[in-house]
Write a structure and sequence with these properties.
The chain is an alpha/beta fold and 288 residues long. It folds into three domains: 67 residues, no CATH class; 98 residues, D-Maltodextrin-Binding Protein, domain 2 (3-Layer(aba) Sandwich); 102 residues, D-Maltodextrin-Binding Protein, domain 2, CATH 3.40.190. The protein contains nine helices and nine strands. The strands form two sheets. Strands 1, 2, 3, 4, 7, 8 and 9 form a seven-stranded mixed β-sheet that branches. Strands 5-6 form a two-stranded parallel sheet. It is elongated and about 100 Å long.
Length: 288
């Protein structure tokens, strides 16, 4: 009697060949039985043909995934991002553009602050980060700016300044400041300090929060004012207005951070897609 493992091993590579193999197995079973074939033998032959077909499908799928992975069209990308990557459109637009060319790549996306992203890039926990740029990066990690936007002041709608077309920094003297991302040594803490210097006062935050939406919510409730990126206006709540600063032209930037030596084709492809968002082009050393 032909063993089942031998039957599967003899599977052909095409449907017609699989059917031929099934017929040969059935004939062998008839010869082995030395007479009429019991009912269960044709059933076993049919099961073997089905096994062959399933094995062929698995082989074809594995071959396809291998070819896609080699071209960077399959695999896995772990992405970190800050909230402004959502409000500016960097995150959704990059994901949409990348999925058009690499729909089989699995994305793992986690919100985290810039310092944490740089740590996770360095230790390999994530592959790419959407961050606020820094003066220095961990060894083996770099970043390129892809977007910049002006800063606005978020005011309660009943503030006397809410009727002004633009606000001077000096007009904010004595107001309570709500500071987003207070636990970062760089970034908006520095922006707020510069705003105070332009206005001639010490801009120490009265309230410290973790994100811009919380800061805007507190401003709308009258707890103070907040220095925020322009894109946050798209997520505004009732009771708050946003005004430009006539004498404070600092802008905030978003950057794409990644490892200098990245070997995964699908991660390389995602980095190039993200860099093209702001016209930064491909990473140095990358070819089409």
């Amino acid at each position: 009697m032909i063993r089942r493992s031998e039957q599967v091993a003899d599977c052909g590579s095409e449907p017609d060949e699989i059917a031929i193999v099934g017929g040969r197995i059935l004939n062998a079973q008839r010869e082995s039985a030395g007479g009429p074939v019991p009912d269960e033998l044709p059933k076993r032959a049919s099961e073997t043909v089905a096994d062959c077909a399933l094995e062929r499908v698995r082989e074809q799928r594995a071959d396809r995934i291998g070819r896609l992975a080699a071209r960077g069209e399959a695999g896995h990308v772990a992405l970190g991002y800050i909230g402004s990557a959502v409000t500016t459109g960097l995150l959704p637009d990059t994901l949409k553009a990348y999925r058009l060319t690499s729909p089989d790549v699995r994305m793992h996306i986690v919100a985290m602050e810039t310092p944490t992203q740089l740590e996770r890039l360095s230790d390999g926990a994530i592959d790419v980060g959407f961050i606020r740029p820094r003066a220095h990066y961990p060894d083996g990690v770099t970043a390129r700016v892809v977007q910049s936007e002006p800063l606005l002041i978020a005011l309660p709608v009943d503030s006397p300044l809410s009727r002004a077309k633009a606000v001077k920094a000096s007009q904010l003297r004595g107001m309570s400041f709500i500071a987003p991302q207070f636990n970062e040594a760089a970034g908006f803490a520095e922006d707020l300090a510069r705003l105070g210097r332009v206005g001639g006062f010490d801009a120490q935050p009265e309230y410290r929060v973790n994100d811009f939406l919380t800061a805007v919510s507190m401003a709308s409730a009258g707890y103070g004012v907040a220095l925020v990126p322009q894109s946050i206006r798209g997520f505004a709540q009732p009771g708050v207005v946003f005004k430009p600063l006539s004498d404070f032209k600092d802008q905030v930037e978003l950057a794409v951070a990644y490892r200098v030596r990245e070997h995964s084709p699908c991660v390389q492809g995602f980095i190039d897609t993200a860099l093209s968002y702001g016209g930064a082009g491909k990473r140095p050393g990358r070819t089409a």
